[in-house]
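Fold it.
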Amino acid sequence: MHVTRRQFGGLLAAAAQPPAERLNLLVLTNDQHRADSLACTGNPVVKTPAVDRLAGQGVLFDSHFVQCPQCVPSRGAMHTGRYPHTNRTPSNLYRLSDREDTLAMILNRNGYLTATTGELPFAPTKFLGGFQQVLPGGERMPDGFTALKQQHAGNLKKNFQAVPAPWPEELDETALFAGRAISFLRDNRNQPFYLHVNFRRPHHPFDPPAPFDRMYEGARFPPSHRRDGEMKDKPPAQQKSLESSVGFDLRTMTTRDLDRIKSYYYGMISLNDRYIGRILDELQHLGLDRRTIVVFNADHGEMLGDHGLLFKGGYFYDEVVRVPLILRAPGLPAGKRVADLVETVDLMPTLLQLLGLPVPERVQGRSLLPIIAGTGRPTAAVHSEFPATKMVRTREWKLVHYVRAPYGELYNLKEDPHELYNRWSDPACASAKSEMLGRLADWLINTEDPLLAPQRA
């Protein structure tokens, strides 16, 4: 499907200009940022003026789902436009194969300077995926800073890892990452570039520096969704996660503990937002905003007390698989919100089309430009996965299948949007369960690796 010439002809014309006039690409990724933790997505407490401004200037996707609630598989899908079971990165134990073609590799071949800063693009692996530059640090740290960090690491072994950082804001990694990104923009304003800034925050530990550690003290946070006894009908691994996650017994977490954790989580989001704002301001100051595509997204979410859980894990609740996605580009409508279901694999082909470059046949995602323009057909379902667990989600239902297990998960999202009641064994939901299992099988069949197509005799 293609967008209309009227809507996107200017974009494609810009992409065809000489290299100095071509569109740049800036991707800003937060780690472990859930979709409902932005003011522009309806959170009444968190302050995110920079990201809100970006959403007002671009397109906000309200129903964007990642392909895995874990870093490497999610980032692999983001950079290749291919599902984890296809690009062979089903968990953090794996790295992308050398036969995979990433967005950075494609842009390298088309004359772009590609660079990354912050977390490595496929963290926690050291695989670079084609990025030409990893922006160096070079920041001079005060005497004793290493010892201070070591002491802080010891303190994080208590209080559910919710301990404020003891260093000042200007020495925090978020500020340092943003400083490197700003220097890169200044140094490379006259050539086409792709810069990916990977902020580690708001991934746990929950440790914002001052003043962000006190920014939400005493706030009335949105309630966490859970019900007494719900784990009796959930897969046994979820009960084990309650008993031990990152070394903590979450059953001992009090309301006061959770409010403190939320205040620090929101504090880290607002810390990131401040420095995202500085990057965007510098982009505007340099006159690059008129010819730079900007993406704000996340690799997965955070449980933050829902179902009694913290951190992330081997589950597929919306809290960890639904994340923000904002896209701003010259020619795209400002302030538009898209309710349609979309996936992380859709980002790469969307960006290539905006840049006027062909989308490789191996890519499994689809460009979102027709959806933005209102000419595309919405997808019926989105998917997420681990090696032995697969999720399929529509507007009405979510099913999670566990390989060779006598249990599973099935949620009626219209009646139970917070996924509190597992209907897997409910005879009244047998028809819906059968339909969703069929959707899951269809997806696995339809997403066989196009690189390994059978050869005709």
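The CA atoms of residues 229 and 420 lie 10 Å apart.
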